[in-house]
Structure formats: C-alpha cells, structure tokens
Amino acid sequence: MARCAIILALIVSAAASALPAAREKTAPYCDPAQCVLPDCLCSSLDIPGGLTPAETPQTVLITYDDAVNVLNFVNYTNLIFNRANPNGCNIKATYFLSHEYNNYTLVNDIYNRGHEIASHSITHRTNQDFWLANNEENWDKELADMRTMIEYYAGIPQSAIKGTRAPFLLNGGDTMWSSLSKNGFEWDCSWPTRNYVDPGMWPYTLDFLSQQDCQIGVCPVESYPGKWVVPMIDLFDASGNPCAMVDTCIVGDTADDVYNLLMTNFMRHYEGNRSPYGLFLHAAWLLDTNHLNGYRRFLDTLTTKDDVYLVSISQLLDWVKSPTPLSQIDAFAPWRCDTPITSIPCNERRCAYDGTKTPFGSERIMSMCNRQCPFFYPWYENIYGSNPPTPWVP
To answer: Are 364 and 358 in contact (CB under 8 A)?
Structure first.
C-alpha cells in the first residue's frame, strides 16, 4: 500500500542510522573450493557456473507484498496471468503475504496458476523495535505462523511456501535467520544492496560470511548452511537516489517516465552480468494510472525478448543451483510447463466478524477455503481464531 511505502522509507532511514559501525565476524570467509553448487555459493558478482553474459538468461523477479484482495487481483489478472516466457510457459511472480485483509480464496487461485506464495508476517506491525529485538520467538510467530495460516486457510502445502520477506525490509540478523533455518524456510529476499548494483550481486548461501553491505536492520554473521539470500539490488530513481522497492522510487510524472526509469535500470543488468532484475513493489502503487501504464508497457517490452525470463524466486534459485546456458534452456526442467500444476481445490467460505470478535474493535471480513468460519477473527498468537481477542497494540 502507499502508506506502507511511506513508512518503509522512514523506517529505512531510522534503522540505517542505528546500525553498529562494524559487524563481528563469526562465520568464516567464503572459500570457493569448499562452497560449491548446488548446495553452496559464495556471495559474488560472478555469474554462476562460469557462464558468460551472452550465455545467461536475464531473469526478472516480479514480486508483490502484503494482502491479496479483489482490487489488486484485477491488476494481477490483466498484467501477469496472460503473459508467456520465450519457452512458451507462463511468466511467474512471487507474492509475499501478510494476513490482515488477505483473501485466501484468491491466494489459492494465484497458487493454482503456478505462481509462488511466500510469507511476509501476520501483522506487518510498524513498531521497528519488535523486528529488531533479540527475540527469535517473534519471528516464529510472525513468519512461520503466517505460513501455517496460508496452508490452513488457502489449502497451500507448507512445503510449497519456501521463502520470506521481512516487513519494511527490517532484517532481524541472526535472530531472524535462526528462526528461518529452524522452521525450514529455504530463502529470504529482504536484504537490499547499494554497493553491488553494477555489476549486481547474485543470490548466495549463508554457509559463509556474506560480503553484502548491510543497509537496513541487522544482518546475519553466523553460518546457515544451504540457506539462500536473494539480494534486492537497488534501482536508481529519477533523482539518482537508490531504492530497493519500486514504490519508494521517485519515478516521474508520466507513464513514459515510469517506463524509461524501469528500462534504464533493467539495461544495467541486461548489458552487465545478467544478475536478476527485481521489480519489487506493493500493488497499491499500480492504482496510479501513469504507474500502471508505464509498468504494463515495460512488461510488454520484456516479453518480446527471447533471452529474458520472468520467473518466481524459487525458479531463479533452481537455475542458480544448476546454471544452464540459453542454448539449453528449453530443456531446463524447473522452467518447463509440460507437467500440469496440481490444483488445490477451494470451496470458498466468507466470514464476517463484528468488532467484538476482532482485536481491533472494528469489523473484518475474511474469505477462506474449505473451512468453517473460526469463531473469532484469526490473528497473531490466535491463528485458528479459537480464543477471544485481546486489544491489538502494534
């Protein structure tokens, strides 16, 4: 939402100013001789597998943060669902979900179309002290419990929910990564980089100490074998300022301005080391007609190129683990579409809660799959809605 973009910009500034001057080294520095694919990769600007840029497909990551609702689902339908990659398979996006106002029946529909669902917390609370506290249980109850809610209310297997993004990109350091590792998440995409933009940093594992710059929050220094970081490579906006999320960029006043900004940033990757190009945003940004039209035109341009693939984050990591040149990409199984997607059935149930049954004192509506309506509105520490609510203090 637009409000989230403003809050994100304020929190980024405040959190960055609170960072320690130096990071204590705990994990060893990466040794490429010991860290080998498919299970380990050093943080690096090098294309995996030693491929040249000409041999490397340019991947584009389309992600959307927060709740799926009827309004933004219309844009997803018009912008995403009917486009194809050069191999004829539908493009894929990644949706980072938070709970409030989330329509789980539409999430089920998105998943059944082959897109990726990831966890973005239950509450998306704005209190940065909560996210930066040295409390692993906070992350368990927000990210892991959100995954449980997605499974329970949208019918999506937990095994398919592989990744996370921290609210406001507030990295929780080793506290967060210990929770992610313990709960079986495979990757996270919360960590912007300003120093490794041109050429861009490729995804890497946390077996060894990362060399990525730490912009927001607290970054991990311990070892988490086999857990992947997908760097959020900064864009540069119309004023020349770095921005990790598109909706925090100054993009200009017209659709042409939006298109030109997105294309200029894309070409830095495309003509460089082909590092993944991220279009990370909140769907409310698309409610502006100029944003929508410039974004649509940019997607139209991408899908005319025979070496550009719009993939989910897990599909990207499948390629990184097994680098495959463009000449062989049609045979690369994780990007093929000849195996039908196993659809998860959804019998929709719409549940209404007055203010006495929510922690907010105001009504909420919740759509879900294959469940009876919980007696109370499900929320943090009450994910099945089985207990009377306590007043919510963010």
So the answer is: yes
